[in-house]
Design the sequence.
């Protein structure tokens, strides 16, 4: 029963994506919508990304210094480990999990409300491919903004780590700098960005699917929003496992 | 003209439309009436293509809607305007942008001409002064008028109205009815209105189809409604004592 339901949902999702990735009726309208989504999904998330990353960067640094670092380890270990955690997992995967809560619920509730208030029907009656017009700019918008958010997150995390050195005196700034630069592989930055783009696609498309296919009223919109966050989070975690194997 | 030929629609084995035949002429207001659950909304959604009929045919000026390719259907839809029960305005856009939307999407006119056309449509429904407001800032009646302006922006050949007076006071309902009626005559559109508002039936019912339990039970016009002997129709139209007395008075005077 579960398998049939899962296959049914997968089939509907594929059909929706087929409609989404079709030729736009009027490119200028899609570009206008794309600009709106860049702002709504990406720029509006910069604040939360910076805030969380700054504090997590600081906390990781403090935790490693206090609990992992010992006298027989080199002093750069704290900086090195902080960088690797931020770069390989936190800024790409965990940040995308956090964003799936913020952005995913936003997308699902917006499309769900449009569905129950017949705004999507109105688009269809006009002869507009509503799936493409509403979903494609969201997917492209989030996939464009995510690498920028990931970069900001890495930067904010490192500044957070420096804050513990400058203001907390937890470790020497020179040791942190040496650790951050030690054995740096630029591929890890690219791996992080590639992962985040795939996660962005998962967040935008899965949340759009749940919002677009809502039937009923406000309670169903709420359920769709929750389902969107839960399912996209699960998919991010599963794909993270495979992508980590594949890319690093 | 829109023709329906033996239209059937079932949901999971339950037949909601049981073979409906009808003709809707242009330039007059065609009403579909019936009790809640009689199948009139399903009928409307089938006609506009939001639902696929189980069997039967829908002809738009001779064009078989079901036989059209997806792209041809999209093109035909650009000849349609629809006013939804909830107005269905895009709430992230201003009133002017809502009316501009179909023009921006499908018209090849210049920006200036598109804005001019949108303002003309808003002026036609007496709402030019609200052009910069958002749907959430205007009343339900005004929202319906914006929906009318948006529906006529591309000069559609077919206008569909799903319970346009739902949630409106009687006076505003009359304004909406008069507006739809005038626009239909003015632009020679084929207009189909889904309603159970008796003021609309008796006011603008140029051609009325009464649906009961998924079947066409009766058809006629607003004058014939009053003198009809169809029991189901009379039970529906003259459900209140007041309307029954009015009918009795009229039929007594005619005798």
Sequence:
């Amino acid at each position: 029963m579960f398998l049939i339901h899962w296959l049914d949902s997968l089939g509907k999702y594929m059909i929706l994506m087929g409609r989404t990735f079709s030729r736009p009726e009027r490119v200028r309208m899609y570009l206008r919508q794309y600009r709106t989504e860049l702002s709504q999904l990406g720029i509006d998330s910069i604040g939360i990304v910076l805030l969380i990353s700054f504090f997590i960067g600081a906390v990781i640094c403090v935790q490693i210094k206090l609990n992992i670092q010992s006298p027989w380890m080199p002093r750069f270990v704290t900086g090195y480990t902080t960088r690797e955690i931020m770069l390989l997992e936190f800024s790409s995967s965990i940040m995308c999990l956090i964003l799936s809560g913020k952005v995913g619920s936003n997308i699902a509730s917006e499309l769900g409300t449009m569905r129950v208030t017949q705004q999507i029907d109105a688009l269809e009656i006009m002869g507009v491919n509503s799936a493409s017009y509403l979903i494609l700019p969201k997917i492209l918008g989030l996939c464009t903004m995510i690498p920028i958010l990931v970069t900001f997150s890495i930067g904010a995390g490192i500044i957070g780590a420096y804050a513990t050195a400058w203001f907390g005196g937890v470790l020497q700034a020179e040791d942190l700098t040496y650790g951050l630069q030690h054995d740096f592989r630029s591929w890890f930055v690219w791996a992080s960005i590639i992962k985040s783009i795939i996660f962005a696609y998962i967040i935008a498309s899965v949340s759009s699917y749940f919002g677009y296919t809502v039937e009923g009223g406000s309670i169903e919109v709420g359920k769709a929003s929750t389902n969107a966050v839960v399912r996209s989070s699960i998919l991010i975690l599963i794909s993270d496992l495979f992508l980590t194997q594949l890319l690093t | 003209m829109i023709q329906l030929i033996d239209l059937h629609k079932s949901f999971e084995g339950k037949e909601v439309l049981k073979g409906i035949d009808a003709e809707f002429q242009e330039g007059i207001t065609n009403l579909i009436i019936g009790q809640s659950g009689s199948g009139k909304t399903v009928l409307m959604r089938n006609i506009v293509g939001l639902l696929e009929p189980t069997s039967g045919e829908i002809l738009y000026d001779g064009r078989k809607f079901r036989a059209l390719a997806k792209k041809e259907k999209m093109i035909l839809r650009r000849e349609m305007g629809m006013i939804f029960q909830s107005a269905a305005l895009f709430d992230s856009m201003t009133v002017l942008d809502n009316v501009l939307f179909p023009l921006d999407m499908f018209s090849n006119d210049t920006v200036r001409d598109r804005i001019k056309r949108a303002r003309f449509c808003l002026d036609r429904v007496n709402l030019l002064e609200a052009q910069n407001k958002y749907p959430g800032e205007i009343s339900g009646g005004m929202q319906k008028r914006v929906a009318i302006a948006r529906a006529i922006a591309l000069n559609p050949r077919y206008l569909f109205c799903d319970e346009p007076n739902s949630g409106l006071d009687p006076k505003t309902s009359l304004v909406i009815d008069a507006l739809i009626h005038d626009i239909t005559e003015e632009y020679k559109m084929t207009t189909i209105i889904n309603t159970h508002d008796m003021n609309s039936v008796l006011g603008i019912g140029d051609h009325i189809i009464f649906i009961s339990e998924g079947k066409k039970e009766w058809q006629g016009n607003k004058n014939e409604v009053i003198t009809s002997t169809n029991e189901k129709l009379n039970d529906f139209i003259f459900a209140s004592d007041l309307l029954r007395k009015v009918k009795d008075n009229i039929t007594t005077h005619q005798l």
Remarks:
- The longest helix of chain A spans residues 77-116.
